[in-house]
Design brief:
By secondary structure, the chain is α+β, with helices and mostly antiparallel strands. The protein is 53% helix and 22% strand. The protein has a two-stranded antiparallel sheet. β1 and β2 form a beta hairpin.
């Protein structure tokens, strides 16, 4: 994971503030600045991020299989 602000860091900041969230993971595909991702989260959430992303991926696969 890259350190420092990404090209969509300003958007992630806006989402985090608007939602009063502890953390934000933003993935952009084909946006105005191209594709990219930004993570804004405290260390404990960053360390748990791989597990969380695996759970999200499994949920997507499950939904696709059920609706496919």
């Amino acid at each position: 994971m890259a350190h420092g602000p990404g090209k969509y860091d300003d958007v992630a900041t806006a989402v985090r503030l608007l939602t009063a969230a502890r953390g934000v993971v933003l993935i952009i595909s084909g946006g105005v600045k191209g594709s990219g991702f930004t993570v804004q989260a405290p260390l404990d959430l960053q360390l748990d991020l791989p597990r969380m992303l695996r759970e999200v991926a499994q949920a997507i696969e499950h939904d696709m299989a059920a609706n496919g």
